Amino acid sequence: MSPVKPTLKTIAEISGLAVPTVSRALNDAPDIGARTKILVRKIADELGYVPNRAGVRLRTGRTNVISLVLSTEHDMMNHTARLISAIAGEMQGTSFHMNITPYFPSDDPMKPIRYIVETRSADAVIMNQILPEDPRVAYLRERNFPFVTHGRTRWADSHPYFDFDNTAFGRIGVEKLVMRGRRNIVMISPPRNQNYAQNMIDGGTGAARAAGCSMRVMQGTTSDNRNEDIQLGVARHLAEFPETDGIVCSATAVAMAAVATLESLQHRLGEDVDVIAKEAVPFLTLFRPQMLTVHEDVARAGQFLAQAAIQAVRHPEKPPLQGLDVPTG
User: Where do the domains of the chain lie, and which CATH numbers do they carry?
Assistant: First the structure.
């Protein structure tokens, strides 16, 4: 005989609360006190209570799901894995759950967004790799569907987002290399059609101009390339510009590929060439102590994105939550 599945009524009987109060506590209703919510969730966890999603959707019109839409091409070693963990952690203890909707580089990035909106398989979308005039954002705004971007569009004033100040990173990266005496710098940027690539390049170019040194953007190679392709790109650049003495890398994996190439060509890291990169966890200086790094607080980004998505669902009338992580170097 299978065990009886716990229900809202079961939790109500144990807690001494009314069923509607239990339901509202589990849905994090603002009019329910924190102690009541803690009590109800504790009992629900102990019982192994799982809400009937079909019933929730019938009663509220919601799925209690927030979908994180990610390209399969992204850096899973460092940035994206930490982002996923932070978003999921922030949703813990709420009525919301996260799912991940992947899409492949060969796919139309609109495809997963249209699917979610048309099937109503989630209440909100979190997405990254943002373009200045991102068609996904335009589509979601037109349909009044809740969303949050990890990055900014040209319409950022009117929608929720969290972003890392890549203009500041580009500037700090070049300034740190200049302080080490570097005068011939190359940046391995994200694809230039993405907003944060443009910001990063602008910051680096401005700092190089102010210092009176050279900064090129590596041609034919971006942070989205495979590691072996990045290594080939670095080797080609060094052959064409042997005077290169500083490299700004937009991701941890890019920096590791650049260092691997330098060492294979007998360049001494920290002596012949310096490399600086942003990273979400303190890894690169363990890999090579001579590395220069700038911290990106991806955990904070994930927490903020989750909060912004939940507010966009629950309180669409409120001003959108917007945040910016400004590195200090």
Answer: 8-50 (no CATH), 65-159+298-325 (3.40.50.2300), 166-295 (3.40.50.2300)
